[in-house]
Specification:
32% of the residues are buried. The chain is 54% helix and 0% strand. It has two domains: 110 residues, Orthogonal Bundle (Cytochrome Bc1 Complex, Chain D, domain 2); 89 residues, Cytochrome Bc1 Complex, Chain D, domain 2 (Orthogonal Bundle), CATH 1.10.760.10. It binds heme C (2 copies).
Length: 215
């Protein structure tokens, strides 16, 4: 696992270095276009069109532009402020990006057609059914609000603030819920942390499985 992690970090630097070098050393060089960045830097993990097939890497295709741009800004640490969203991988990815790049990348991925996560054939139907009830109706007893209230009945979200979640890989969604729960992801103005404070592990797994089936 450690070796794989190191390889990813190495690959990360190898991919970012040429971009950084271009902007630092060669004033005449034209800035990289959004397609060049997407296919040269991001494609290795998210695919050129944003349809990641790796369950831990989010699908970006079809996500709202504003939400993507916000996340890229949040991953970036500035001289005066630490990053608002913590991810060693993504922080090094955004280090060389300008605000314009981030805005353009948001628009680029929003325009791509989403290719939803393929649900494993052994997906647990009972778990998905439980997730469906929670997603649409919440849980009155524990005060869990319906996810649909903010992320929409079809999971398409409400721009600019509420991201689309439909068809996202269950592994990625579950990881984010766990990060909100542990307060390790804190760029949500406490909205998601508040939701998660009322949910248990099985409910998180159930709703993540259901979300991956939403189209
Ligand atoms: C080495 C793999 C890797 C590369 C290359 C990479 N990413 Fe990521 N990206 C990830 C991972 C892993 C996450 C999830 C981080 C987390 O756990 O919060 C992520 C998360 C994101 C998110 C947040 C999505 C969401 O739904 O909240 C955006 C946006 C994003 N990446 C865009 C990009 C862009 C744009 C590039 C190229 C400049 C890029 N990524 C390059 C691995 C990568
Ligand atoms: C009151 C509104 C609200 C409710 C209810 C809500 N969410 Fe969210 N959710 C948000 C907001 C806002 C964000 C974006 C935070 C940010 O800007 O990074 C978010 C982000 C997320 C993300 C991260 C998406 C990504 O691509 O990284 C997931 C997953 C998520 N919510 C799942 C859920 C689930 C599951 C439920 C129901 C149990 C739920 N949400 C209920 C408002 C809400």
């Amino acid at each position: 696992m450690k070796i794989i992690k190191n390889m990813v970090i190495l690959a990360t630097f190898a991919m970012v270095a040429p971009l950084a070098a271009e902007t630092d050393d060669n004033v005449d060089a034209a800035p990289a276009t959004v397609t060049e960045i997407a296919s040269g830097v991001c494609a290795g993990c998210h695919n050129a069109d944003g349809n990641s097939v790796i369950p831990m890497n989010p699908i970006l295709a079809g996500q709202h532009a504003e939400y993507i741009t916000k996340q890229l800004l949040d991953f970036k640490a500035t001289e005066s402020e630490p990053a608002k969203r913590n991810s060693p991988v993504m922080s090094s990815m955004v280090a060389a990006l300008s605000q314009d790049d981030m805005k353009n990348l948001g628009e680029y991925y929003a325009k791509q057609k989403a290719n939803p996560s393929q649900v494993a054939t052994d997906a647990d139907e009972k778990l998905i059914a439980k997730g469906k009830i929670l997603y649409h109706g919440g849980n009155l007893e524990d005060g869990i609000p319906a996810c649909a209230g903010c992320h929409g009945p079809k999971g398409s979200g409400i721009p600019p603030h509420y991201p689309a979640v439909a068809g996202q890989h269950a592994e990625y969604t579950l990881t984010q819920l766990q990060l909100f729960d542990k307060k390790e992801r804190t760029n949500d103005k406490a909205v998601m942390r508040n939701v998660l404070s009322r949910m248990n592990g099985q409910e998180m797994r159930a709703v993540s499985a259901y979300i991956s089936t939403l189209r």
